[in-house]
Design a protein that fits this description.
two-stranded parallel sheet; 2 strands
Length: about 90
Amino acid sequence: MGLGIREFQNALKKLKKVGLDSSILIYHLEDMEPYANLTENIFAMVAEGSLSAVLSTVSVTEFWSNRLPPASRIESRLLSAFFSPCRIRN
């Protein structure tokens, strides 16, 4: 049995950084249940600065090359604004 939303939030609060993959972006952009509620928490914490996120190189490539599902491409403009201030580190 998986974590409930409160347990997930509490687990996230203990972290400083998370690694994200394409599936997290897709779940979030496509508002896929039951994952959308969880991804909302991740992105909210990243936006407020209480959590850092790392995207895999493959995920970044898929995002910028529009290899995400068609409905996600429309909403990807919003994420572009979200990702634009991110720094790329070697």
